[in-house]
Amino acid sequence: MTRPNQASPPAQPSSSVVMIVDDDAGIRASLDSLFRSVGLETRLFGSPAELLGGTLPEGPGCIVLDVRLPGVSGLDLQGQLTRQGIRYPIIFMTGHGDIPMSVRAMKAGAVDFLAKPFRDQDMLDAVTAALERDALRRAEAATKEDIRALYETLTAREREVMGHVTAGLMNKQVAGLIGLSEITVKIHRGNVMRKMGARSLAELVRQAEALGVSQTRRTTDQT
């Protein structure tokens, strides 16, 4: 790592954790010092096995990973994490990187690929982007969970009406499709809007898309 200028602190959520995976103790110590100097919490691992066998942080985090490690490579570890549903953003670092390797890493979801020696600021910038991405992903997941909880309060009929309405059907079409009066459909639709906390049809459509519950437009052919 090179330090031509004073590294500026990145802006990221508090309690963010940077996990450093490198078999070189000197690199781990240097990165640990760098990240802690700007207020980041770190966890150090000398191998992929140590990371996989440890307790991962519950809040926002990212992984700074050496691509060339004894045994399981950094790219192999990236694949294992993906298969296990562990979705921390990854920043690869290497002294022997080549174009095919970096392309493979980026296609698999890596945030950045830094060649050693790298500037401290470049690493901090990459970590900042990774932590912001993870925080956003977690916020979106939490919002989806909230929407799912609201959806669970709907009756089976209200869910059916919601699916058809958010697919673009008018109340009259929904009524003909499921065998109800139009006024009854309107009542169910109002209940859906109220229970889901949707202030407009557009908002209800976005909620349905987040949950994947919209019916297909082919139902219009049956009316």
UniProtKB/TrEMBL annotation:
PROSITE patterns: HTH_LUXR_1, HTH_LUXR_2, RESPONSE_REGULATORY. Residues 147-212 form the HTH luxR-type domain. Keywords: DNA-binding, Phosphoprotein, Transcription, Transcription regulation, Two-component regulatory system. The modification 4-aspartylphosphate is found at residue 66. This is Two component transcriptional regulator, LuxR family. GO terms for biological process: phosphorelay signal transduction system; regulation of DNA-templated transcription. The keyword Hydrolase does not apply. SMART domains: HTH_LUXR (SM00421), REC (SM00448). It comes from the Bacteria. One of its GO terms (molecular function) is DNA binding. Pfam families: GerE, Response_reg. It comes from Bradyrhizobium shewense. Residues 17-131 form the Response regulatory domain.
